[in-house]
Write a structure and sequence with these properties.
7 helices, 2 domains, about 0% strand, single chain, about 55% helix, mainly alpha
């Protein structure tokens, strides 16, 4: 029997054909981003070779974890989510040792992103991490994406447009 790999969006095909494939003797492996308890282990960082791979992974991650029926009335928040994930993944890719390059570390980093709405000048542990990186490497792509994410907090329509333009310009530069 030959081996093959298939990326199945949101699991619909697996639900309809999985039992047939098992009956035919196939060994199925599932990477489930919604229910980790029903997922086989997989670390996409092992396959990231450059900045383009990070962008592709995040695009697929967001696309495959967004419910089919979900409608985004304001794409601003999805863009902010994208910038934050890019900042975290670029940080791990370029600053962390290989054993920390995984989604568990991303979740741990996200837990450091505290927000205290009553304190405008509050600096979270995640802010400090990126501030320290900026002091060492001001041109870091992780720092620039984190700054874009931070711009998203509390801005109106004008700032949202500026944010979109900034994010799009950075993504285009990476893809060139």
């Amino acid at each position: 029997m030959s081996n093959f790999e298939r990326n199945i969006d949101k699991g619909e095909i697996l639900q309809t054909t999985g039992s047939l494939l098992l009956e035919k003797g196939y060994d199925l492996r599932v990477f489930n981003l919604v229910d980790f308890q029903r997922s086989d282990a997989y670390n996409p960082f092992r396959y990231i070779r450059d900045d383009k791979d990070v962008l592709k992974l995040i695009t697929n991650l967001i696309r495959n974890t967004t419910p089919k029926e979900a409608k985004t009335s304001d794409p601003f928040w999805e863009k902010a989510e994208t910038a934050l994930l890019e900042a975290l993944m670029f940080y791990l890719l370029y600053e962390a040792p290989p054993h920390e390059q995984n989604f568990s570390t991303i979740l741990k980093m996200l837990s450091f992103a505290e927000v205290k709405e009553e304190k405008d000048d509050y600096v979270s542990p995640l802010d400090l991490l990126f501030y320290q990186l900026e002091q060492k490497k001001p041109e870091s792509i992780a720092v620039s994406q984190y700054k874009i994410y931070k711009m998203a907090a509390g801005f109106g329509t004008f700032w949202r447009e500026l944010y979109f333009n900034s994010l799009s310009t950075k993504r285009l530069a990476i893809l060139r």
